Amino acid sequence: MQVPSGQPVTLVPTVRLLFTVFCRGIVRLFPQPSGARLLFEDEKGGLHLFNPVNDHVVAVPGFSGRADNVMWDSTDQNVIVIADGSALHTYLYVPVSLNGPQVRH
User: Fold this and answer.
1) What is the mean pLDDT of residues 9-23?
2) Cα 95 from chain centroid (whole Å)
3) Alpha helices in the chain (DSSP H)
4) What's the rounded Cα separation, in Å, for the pair 38 and 5?
């Protein structure tokens, strides 16, 4: 999602919060089909997972390159598979841990 500066923007509250926090730095969005979570790519190529229930934004570690596709497991909503064109990368979102929410490779 790229928005030219000075253009009016109408966004749902979840995306509006992200847009405000990352100030036009969001390049692409990969929503979970149920709408419970959202993976987004920033302008520097980093991937982040957003949980709108608690407004946590968690970086996806160890991923370099461009995400071509993001697949969400339909049985376990915490499992994410990211395709970069040459490989599939599996991640696990851990919403509650001693170190706070995190995404593990």
Assistant:
1) 52
2) 14
3) 13-22
4) 23
